[in-house]
Specification:
This protein has helices at residues 2-16, 32-46, 50-65, 94-107, 114-128, 161-169, 175-182, 202-214, 233-239, 246-253, 255-266, 268-282; strands at 189-191, 219-221. It is an all-alpha fold and 306 residues long. The longest helix has 16 residues, at 50-65. Bound molecules: protoporphyrin IX containing FE and 2-acetamido-2-deoxy-beta-D-glucopyranose (NAG) (4 copies).
């Protein structure tokens, strides 16, 4: 048994993730990570909601074509792109990516990928919001394809848990890791169209019904208590029947996920540790490495081909 795990560690794991590594830019762009950190810190000081924006962007990028920044591509005159699909309108933070990319290009042109920038920014924002500090392996390359229909594969806020589990399993994410990643709903908001039909907590239900009656574009915090903190409060809230989207509430109710929910609700430390490793794992889904893809100069457009 011990031997098997030694073989796994020294042989199979390094092969599987051969080209993502900690400090990939240590010699090619020594300042990359500190530039990211400086820019996000500045933004966070005036807008604490940026953490939610980045978490969602990172998720929606990774689970469509892999973490390849295909989500960042703008539509062109004759073509659509991934960011136009589904709940697209509410993914935000593209301007922050532009700011970081511009600062990094000024120091080390054509070296740092947009997909790494998303992963690093998200990591730093999570730490600024009270969440774990973790190391992100880098070396991702940017994708050459971005299609609006691709994002249709993403589950919706009312997808049943078995369907969610299957979706994540297909990307190598376990049920426990899925419950951990959905803990990202500890920050940020959802808009009226995505609320559950009826929320278990009657007072909250009334509040949200009234909100959406007066403003169909209204939004409410996913975690109704510590709405800007990356902590385990989301799990406590869904145990109190205060999940505002159906998928969130179902996590606490479905037999296959409820045990993980109660464990995370009662052990904040366990959540924080699991969240860090689940985010690192999510950031490796379907990455392009080595000579695949490209390093975009502008995160919104593919480089010119000749
Ligand atoms: C497949 C499972 C998931 C579904 C169906 C889902 C669905 C949604 C929906 C419908 C919203 C509301 C969007 C809006 O009204 O603007 C939302 C928000 C959000 N999601 Fe998820 N989500 C999922 C998984 C994840 C994961 C894995 C993460 C991150 C690791 C994540 C992070 C977020 C964040 C932070 C927000 C708030 C965004 C903001 O405030 O701008 N979600 N999600
Ligand atoms: C859009 O135009 C470009 C450049 O003319 C072309 O290469 C591409 O194939 C076109 N895409 C579609 C979907 O028509
Ligand atoms: C446009 O269309 C092609 C398919 O013809 C696709 O592969 C490409 O990535 C699309 N997106 C953009 C923004 O050009
Ligand atoms: C909100 O969170 C705080 C701090 O975690 C906790 O002490 C309090 O009981 C929570 N309140 C509600 C209404 O859930
Ligand atoms: C659901 C949604 O917000 N869809 C939007 C996606 O993006 C296109 C183009 O910007 C909009 O027209 C859609 O309304």
């Amino acid at each position: 048994m011990k031997q098997i795990s030694i073989i796994l560690f020294f042989f199979i794991l390094p092969l599987a993730f051969a080209d993502l590594q900690l400090g990939f830019y240590a010699s090619s762009c020594r300042k990359a990570e500190s530039i990211v950190n400086k820019v996000v810190q500045k933004r966070f000081n005036r807008d604490k909601s940026i953490t939610a924006a980045l978490l969602r962007m990172h998720f929606r990028d990774c689970f469509v074509r892999g973490c390849d920044a295909s989500l960042l591509i703008d539509p062109t005159k004759n073509n659509t792109s991934e960011k136009q699909t589904g709940a697209n309108a509410s993914v935000r933070g593209y301007d922050l990516i532009d700011d970081v990319k511009e600062a990094i290009e000024a120091t080390c042109p054509s070296t740092v990928s947009c997909s790494d920038i998303i992963a690093l920014l998200t990591r730093d924002a999570v730490a600024l919001s009270g969440g774990p500090k973790y190391n992100v392996p880098t070396g991702r390359r940017d994708g050459l394809v971005s299609n609006s229909i691709d994002a249709n594969i993403l589950p919706g806020p009312s997808s049943p848990i078995p369907q969610l589990t299957q979706f994540f399993a297909a990307k190598g994410i376990t049920t426990e890791e899925m419950v951990t990643l959905l803990g990202a709903h500890t920050v940020g908001v959802a808009h009226c169209g995505f609320f559950a039909n009826s929320i278990g907590d009657p007072a909250l239900n009334t509040k949200l019904v009234n909100l959406c009656k007066s403003n169909t574009n209204g939004a409410a915090f996913l975690d109704q208590n510590t709405s800007f903190v990356v902590d385990n409060e989301f799990y406590k809230q869904i145990l109190l029947k205060r999940g505002i989207m159906q998928i969130d509430q179902q996590l606490a109710l479905d037999k296959s996920t409820s045990t993980f929910v109660s464990n995370f609700a009662s052990n904040g430390d366990k959540f924080v540790k699991s969240f860090a490793s689940a985010m690192i794992k999510m950031g490796k889904v379907g990455v392009l490495v080595g000579k695949e893809g490209e390093i975009r100069k502008n995160c919104r457009v593919f480089n010119k081909r000749n």
